[in-house]
Amino acid sequence: MEPRISLITLGVTDLERAVRFYRDGLGFPLSSASVPGEVAFFRTGGAVLALWHRASLAADANLPPGGPGFGGIALAHNARSKEAVDAVMSQAQAAGGRILKPAHDTDWGGYSGYFADPDGHPWEVAWNPGFPFGPDGSLQLP
Amino acid sequence: MEPRISLITLGVTDLERAVRFYRDGLGFPLSSASVPGEVAFFRTGGAVLALWHRASLAADANLPPGGPGFGGIALAHNARSKEAVDAVMSQAQAAGGRILKPAHDTDWGGYSGYFADPDGHPWEVAWNPGFPFGPDGSLQLP
After folding, report:
1. Nearest CA in chain A to B123
2. Residues contacting residue B110 through CB under 8 Å, at least 6 positions apart
3. Range of the domain at A90
């Protein structure tokens, strides 16, 4: 596993309000990869910042939305192949992580799983053919 | 405000266990800026990953440790001067953010404040003279 946080997703209850805060208020550049009403991606130095409905994020990570293990944030590590996703999930489990959701083909054309670190912080491990890597390994969003 | 997440801090209940997971289990490179028993920093592509006692993190952000507004994670934006910290805090407040803790001189020799975004996600805004910036604006840890 490369030591990399590729993407940080904040679960939000009002996507438009959150987009206004980050795009208009703080001046973060909204990526054209965003889907209005669904998900917003911002290009930032290093990790991509994503905004997504909190309930969707909890469901995606297989966590109860109001439970103590879910603070409304998920970190993501993007890998370069499905095989690399499987390898990272195995590595995390061997290290004492808890598999929240085994890796599987997703409806957005990628491959993804979730594990929780020893304190319950959820990490997604994903291969996403629509998000290319830059020379330094960070995600390059349009 | 540069669109940048400089540092992600995970609140943990057992620092040694968390360090073993990330350093030994996942292979993340531990920075010599870490303070054993206190805080651990990992060099990652883009954002720095930090591990800190959950209660300390909540207290630092002026949030109740078990409250609904605290999921055990804080994002951080590092600015290049105290004045830049003040400017970002003002910008966040003007954008609808809630000031959790006004910026102030810290006991670690820096200057820091916290705001919450509209969903309550805490952000620290900090000037830290011990963490120099690299050419691309990311933090350069030893």
Report:
1. A10
2. B126, B127, B128, B129, B130
3. 74-131
